[in-house]
């Protein structure tokens, strides 16, 4: 398949930006999905030892990708405890 893409790019050089941006978009989407699967507090890979990982998340830990107005390192309030 890579050989076919390279041969098409040699025949039609105007397709090179299309291949570059398509590849970059696919790579970015794959990396974002991998980030969500590995670092999201709502994803549990080990259901026996940690069935509810979101309960262990502290109030000053940032789990969002980007937060506009909140600086999580300066939060000092305690999280509500479960009974």
TrEMBL record:
- Alphabetized UniProt keyword annotations: Electron transport, Membrane, Mitochondrion, Mitochondrion inner membrane, Respiratory chain, Transmembrane, Transmembrane helix, Transport
Question: Which Pfam family is one of this chain's hits?
Answer: B12D
Which residue ranges run through the membrane?
A: 15-38
Membrane topology recorded in Swiss-Prot or TrEMBL:
Single-pass membrane protein
Report the main location listed first in the record: mitochondrion
GO CC annotations, alphabetized: mitochondrial inner membrane
Q: Does the keyword DNA-binding apply?
A: no
Compartments annotated for it: namely:
Mitochondrion inner membrane
Family that this chain belongs to = Belongs to the complex IV NDUFA4 subunit family.
What is this protein called in UniProt?
Cytochrome c oxidase subunit NDUFA4
Question: Per the UniProt entry, what species is this protein from, by scientific name?
Answer: Chrysochloris asiatica (Cape golden mole)
């Amino acid at each position: 398949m890579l050989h076919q893409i390279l041969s098409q790019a040699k025949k039609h050089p105007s397709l090179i930006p299309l291949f570059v941006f398509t590849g970059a978009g696919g790579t970015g989407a794959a990396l974002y999905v991998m980030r969500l699967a590995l670092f999201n507090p709502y994803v549990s890979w080990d259901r026996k030892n940690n069935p509810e990982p979101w309960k262990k998340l502290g109030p000053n830990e940032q789990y969002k990708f980007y937060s506009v107005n909140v600086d999580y390192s300066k939060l000092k309030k305690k999280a509500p405890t479960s009974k």
